[in-house]
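Dear colleague,

Thank you for sharing your sequence with our group. We've completed the structure prediction you requested, and as agreed, I am returning the results in plain text so they can be pasted directly into your records. Please verify that the sequence below matches your submission; if there's any discrepancy, let me know and we will rerun it promptly.
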Amino acid sequence: MEMYFNGTALAIIVGYYLLINIIMYVAMVIDKKRAMKDGWRIPEKNLYLLAVLGGGTGGLIAMVTKHHKNRHLDFIMVFTITAILHFIVAFLAISRFAFVMN
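Please find the predicted structure tokens below.
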């Protein structure tokens, strides 16, 4: 048996997580700006959905850097739990699809 590296699979997995976390971070920044101006806000369910789809790390980074939703225990818990779970999912996906036994 021989093991080989599948760069395409790795690029897809890493690219997905980078994209979803950038989208989450930008959504949090936009929501923070709108909160400061009393504008239309991004619904919390949408932020939760982005976290469940893999954007928990981006949400945590936005909480720390932009001080947005950082007093809401529910956001802290959801972003932290989803970030940990998606790190595990990404690790398993990379180990399963990027390094393949032949």
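Summary note from our side: The beta strands are 3-5, 99-101.

Kind regards,
the structure core
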